[in-house]
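Colleagues,

For the teaching module next term, I've prepared a clean inverse folding example: a structure given as tokens, and then the sequence designed for it. I'd like students to try predicting residues themselves before seeing the answer, so please don't circulate the second half yet.
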């Protein structure tokens, strides 16, 4: 959830003297704590909240506090008689006076949680924070029956521009048209389509085509949502392939059908959801993945002034412009460091261009400027690059992800021609206009931190499914060949208070 408006303004518009305040001692009492991880009703795979270090004079620090004292967080059951596995890593220093606190619960607690936020031996802000139980872990199946209450608990936006734009093409959704057309048009042997029906908050599906292994990603987010909130009954098709599928115009006959995809394009009509990559990283954060939307925020490399003053790229050979990028790099090593780490599409180019060693993604941010070039479609690294504190040089592209509509060139990133003809010019501009480049990098980071918060992804998924369901012209049904997608087995204690009385409190 977002901090109150007054607090948001404080964080974005720190007073001019705040940098000097970084040398002043931190006031635990005056420091700020906020975020969705302080509310029991916000069930997420990884719960999180934020800290803002504030000086004794009441000024927001804009870089890490001096000295060795750091914030410490302890999360434990409110009742000493309850036992729960809770993983709480050290707060992530975001290098701007703010810290990100994460914790992952592996058990549910009935009575509640106690969260101590400390700076040294002192409690920070209103610590300790009490989350009255029950507080559920990720795999507890206990959906909120009132979707509006669930959305309010998460502070979900009431309007998502990409969702509104996508559904403007579909005032009604003709399920019979979809049933007759989609399997024939997109579900042949080479297809990557999965047909889903959600009834009574249960997920059912059948695969259409040979390349549907990625259904594990769509399965896991739908199951995760169903554990948290009652989903509307609906029937839809998800495209698991890279490219958007529906290229009919709005006024064509037959009319376009609302296939759901992870990537959109200017000449298609697919309904866009967050990519499988950011979705999976959100679900598996602090467990099955290294890079996720939270961890990246505390691993953005050296401060701006200490970053290498070059543009940087590493990636596969999934687009010809990436090969051009390496050629430019070889000709202009003082401006650009680019390399291909794996050849698949243009194997014959490996001898000419060479193969670069793999690098950890966090090491990308040792460089001031990050080049974002499309892969087969939109480069799914873009959200992670935006969450860093380097300037993103983004190739103009017909492809987009769900959050692009809010971003603006020259405010959040620097645009680069599709054929990269002005890339070197843009790198030179950034080097000659360091303060402006730093400002754009910061604005892009702030926008990404807001748009890509994990709870916002859940909000986005739910709103898209809700908008879809409201437009169906007939009732969804279970179709021949569909199988139920079961919730994962979980051995942790979890008794949903909505399904019956809780056990006696411990």
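(Answer key — instructors only)
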């Amino acid at each position: 959830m977002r901090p109150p408006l007054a607090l948001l303004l404080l964080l974005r518009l720190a007073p001019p003297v705040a940098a000097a305040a970084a040398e002043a001692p931190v006031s635990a009492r005056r420091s700020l704590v906020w975020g969705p991880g302080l509310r029991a009703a916000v069930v997420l795979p990884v719960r999180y909240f934020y800290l803002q270090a504030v000086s004794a004079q009441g000024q927001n620090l804009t870089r890490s506090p001096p000295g060795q004292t750091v914030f410490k967080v302890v999360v434990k059951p409110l009742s000493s008689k309850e036992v729960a596995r809770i993983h709480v890593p050290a707060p992530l220093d975001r290098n701007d006076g703010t810290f990100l606190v994460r914790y992952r619960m592996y058990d549910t607690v009935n009575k509640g949680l106690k969260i101590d936020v400390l700076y040294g031996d002192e409690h920070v802000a209103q610590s300790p924070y009490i989350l009255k139980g029950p507080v559920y872990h990720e795999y507890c199946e206990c959906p909120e029956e009132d979707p509006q209450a669930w959305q309010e608990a998460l502070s979900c936006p009431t309007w998502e521009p990409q969702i509104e734009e996508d559904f403007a093409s579909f005032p009604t959704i003709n399920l019979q048209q979809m049933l007759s057309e989609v399997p024939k048009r997109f579900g042949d042997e080479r297809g990557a389509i999965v047909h889903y029906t959600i009834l009574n908050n249960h997920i059912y599906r059948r695969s259409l085509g040979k390349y549907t292994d990625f259904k594990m990603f769509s399965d896991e987010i739908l199951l995760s949502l169903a554990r948290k909130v009652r989903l509307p009954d609906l029937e839809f098709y998800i495209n698991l392939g890279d490219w958007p599928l529906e290229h009919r115009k709005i006024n064509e006959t037959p009319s376009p059908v609302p296939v759901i995809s992870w990537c959109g394009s200017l000449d298609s009509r697919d309904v866009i959801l967050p990519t499988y990559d950011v979705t999976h990283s959100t679900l598996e954060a602090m467990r099955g993945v290294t890079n996720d939307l939270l961890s990246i925020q505390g691993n953005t490399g050296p401060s701006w002034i200490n970053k290498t003053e070059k543009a940087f790229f590493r990636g596969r050979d999934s687009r010809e412009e990436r090969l051009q990028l390496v050629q430019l790099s070889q000709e202009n090593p003082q401006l650009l460091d680019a390399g291909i780490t794996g050849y698949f599409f243009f194997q014959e180019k490996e001898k000419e261009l060479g193969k670069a060693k793999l690098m950890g993604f966090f090491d990308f941010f040792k460089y001031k400027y990050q080049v974002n070039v499309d892969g087969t479609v939109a480069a799914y690294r873009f959200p992670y690059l935006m969450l860093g504190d380097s300037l993103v040089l983004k190739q103009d592209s017909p492809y987009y992800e769900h959050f692009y509509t809010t971003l603006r060139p020259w405010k959040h990133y620097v645009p680069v021609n599709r054929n990269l003809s002005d890339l070197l010019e843009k790198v030179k501009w950034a080097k000659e206009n360091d303060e402006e480049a730093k400002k754009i990098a910061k604005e892009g980071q702030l926008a990404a931190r807001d748009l890509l918060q994990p709870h916002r992804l859940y909000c986005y998924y739910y709103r898209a499914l809700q908008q879809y369901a409201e437009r169906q012209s007939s009732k969804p049904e279970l179709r021949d060949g569909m199988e139920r997608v079961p919730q994962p087995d979980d051995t942790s204690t979890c008794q949903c208070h909505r399904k019956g009385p809780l056990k006696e409190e411990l």
